[in-house]
Amino acid sequence: MMADLDVTALLRPHLRTTRPYSSARDEYSGEAMVFLDANENPYGSVVGGPWHRYPDPRATELRRALGGWLGVAADQVFVGNGSDEAIDLLVRAFCEPGEQRIVVTPPTYGMYRVAAESHGVGVVEVELTDAFQLDAGKVVAAIEPDCRLVFLCSPNNPTGNLLGRADVETVAAGAPGLVVLDEAYIDFAGDGASLVPDLAKLPNVVILRTFSKAWGMAAARVGAAVGHPEVIGVLDHIKLPYNLSGLAQQAALDALAHPERMLDMVGRIVAERGWLAERLAERPEVRAIHHSDANFLLVRFDDAPGTYAGLIERGVIVRDRSRVALCEGALRITVGTRDENVALLDALAEL
Ligand SMILES: *Cc1c(COP(=O)(O)O)cnc(C)c1O
Hints:
It is a single chain. By secondary structure, this protein is of the alpha/beta class. It is built from eleven helices and eleven strands. It has helices at 7-10, 60-70, 83-94, 111-118, 136-142, 165-174, 229-238, 246-256, 259-281, 304-313, 338-350; strands at residues 77-80, 101-104, 122-125, 147-153, 178-182, 205-210, 223-226, 286-289, 296-301, 319-320, 330-334. Strands 1-7-6-5-4-2-3 form a seven-stranded mixed beta sheet, with helices on both faces. A four-stranded antiparallel beta sheet has the order 8-9-11-10, covered by helices on one side. The radius of gyration is 22 Å and the shape is globular. The mean pLDDT is 96. Bound molecules: pyridoxal-5'-phosphate.
């Protein structure tokens, strides 16, 4: 059972009365044999496969399978075109342009700000501490009545660390609106790190998950929001009718049939993360390597822009975060295969 949450009060007023677009397949449930309702090609697709029919607009099977994997009910799961779609829909549903704002805790993922700004929604920033943790009291104090969404990211991108669970819960308890907890990298953080099992106690928390990282399905573009069924219902209300293609739904279902493959790769990536961190620590130009609970390392260099440019010349691309507040001098390096990590180390040795 979910604790109470007044979703209607949080919703933008005009959405309280509008109705979602009803697709041909939405209005029908039963065992039809002849589908002449959606102007599809009756002969099939030019490439074979079941692609000539519009996909399930609700992605029912995928929600059930993902809910099963996460241990929540299917009606607590929204699936979309990457978690980026869920971020965009959350802003669109709960923030009135020009009137309401979101809260972010930099340094963090840039999409929260992009989504807000693209809808004319303001952004309140509360920096993380030097240890890249939440100052929960400071975050709660910064949440004004017009702040409808607080975006937290754990493990955080680009710093790599988990946020303290007690701090996340303090922010959730102090937020008048929703707290969006982005767990894109949670599979790399070890057992018990996710707050999904605690959602029943955290009615105003929406957790984002993605198939793009641990599952190795970035090209399929499938992400999820997990939370209170009424919040999920709101996202369904305003999403595009067929937001997730049939190919994407099938790809994600195929992935969920093989969690052991995901867990095996995560184990290898985590082991490789430790190996790479040890090797990088031996390099004279490396000043610090931050603890990572994700599949990347935030590494401080004596001359980050120079190192970044030198790596590019040698065909090794990393992410330059050196101009981001609290990340001065840092590059974000994704953990690759052993061969890729050796290529990185070789390139560094050449500089
Ligand atoms: C990579 C990443 C995502 C994933 O986004 P998708 O749209 O699902 O690919 C979400 N949040 C963070 C913080 C990320 O770094």
